[in-house]
Sequence to fold (100 residues):
Amino acid sequence: MNKVKEACPKCGLKYSIEPAFYTGSMYVSYAVGVAVAIAAYLLSLIFGLHFEPIGILLSIVAVLLIAMPYIGAVSKSIWAHFFFKYNPEIAKKTSNDSRA
Ligand SMILES: [Zn+2]
Fold:
């Protein structure tokens, strides 16, 4: 699930800069998960669903389970963005290559 490619197919940038690099994305997924949980709760209020505390818990757990693959993917992307910088030189070079 949510396997990150070894390297960019266009420019060859290595995505896994060290072993278990994406383990750190767990910290990000915690924050993203909390944001999703709060969003789920607020949406239940907006839609007028006034759950008991156990209902709130179960609805948040259900939403987190459904959203888990997406939270994982988004977290890895955010984590990678802390370490990789957009390089316009390489972007220009690879787009020239594809045109040729
Ligand atoms: Zn690339």
In short: The CA atoms of residues 39 and 60 lie 9 Å apart. Residues 8, 10-11, 13 surround zinc ion (CB under 6 Å). The radius of gyration is 19 Å.
